[in-house]
Amino acid sequence: VLRLTVIRTTLRVYASVLPGDGRKVLASASTAEADVRKSLGGSGKGGNAAAAQAIGKRIAEKAKAAGVEKVAFDRAGFAYHGRVKALADAAREAGLQF
Prior knowledge:
Layout: E1 3-8, E2 13-18, E3 27-30, H1 34-39, H2 49-65, E4 72-74, H3 83-93
Parallel strand pairs: 1-4
Antiparallel strand pairs: 1-2, 2-3
């Protein structure tokens, strides 16, 4: 089973698509990437819901490019609200199923 894992810190949001054994990252996206930082306006605001939406869309696009259509959502113990929910909703809207 492929899974979409989400990690959030105060400054960043990270998302990765991994197989069940976790040995190989199939796709990843984070607010630490230069392209994402530029699209956020360079303000360093990588820890808000708008940034999480951008990462959700980006991870869905990268996953689909890698041939992944369906994943299990792994929120890594974080509550399903705020940035985690924004990322999940954006990934769903971009076509990733979970």
